[in-house]
Specification:
The structure is a single chain. The chain is mainly α. The protein has a domain of 62 residues: 434 Repressor (Amino-terminal Domain) (Orthogonal Bundle), CATH 1.10.260. The chain is built from six helices and two strands. A two-stranded antiparallel sheet has the order 1-2. A hairpin with a 5-residue loop joins β1 and β2. It starts with a helix and ends with a strand.
């Protein structure tokens, strides 16, 4: 996803036309038109104005396109609930796979992203 696509996604997310988006970030409407058409690339100043107008937008996502970052923080309103928490009996530990399945691990194989692998065998 290119930076222009991310700007258009942001406009669509907030139901803004190009002119309304330009007004919101306080730039000339023609600037947004030229960016969307591909004539110009967004300047640092424009990106700073976008981030100032939309503080919940993740800067890494908007500028760099990092997909691991959330594009926009979406607020979810939760209804207030009251729960009574009763003390529980303490358990010493969580059960191991051997305790659950009655089986022991013989070998573990780890695959890495560079297509190498490592075998760990129980001796």
């Amino acid at each position: 996803m290119e930076i222009i696509d991310r700007l258009q996604y942001l406009m669509k997310l907030h139901n803004l036309s190009a002119s309304a988006f330009a007004d919101k970030i306080n730039v000339q409407r023609s600037s947004i038109s030229h960016i969307i058409s591909g004539r110009n690339k967004p300047s640092l100043e424009l990106m700073q104005k976008v981030l100032a107008a939309f503080p919940k937008v993740n800067a890494d996502w908007l500028i760099l396109g990092n997909t691991s970052a959330e594009p926009v923080s979406i607020e979810v309103k939760k209804e207030s609930t009251t729960e009574t928490i009763l003390p529980q009996e303490k358990t010493n530990s969580t059960p191991t796979p051997t305790q659950i399945l009655g089986k022991q691990v013989k070998k573990v194989v780890i695959f890495y992203t560079d297509n190498t692998f490592e075998e760990i065998s129980k001796v």
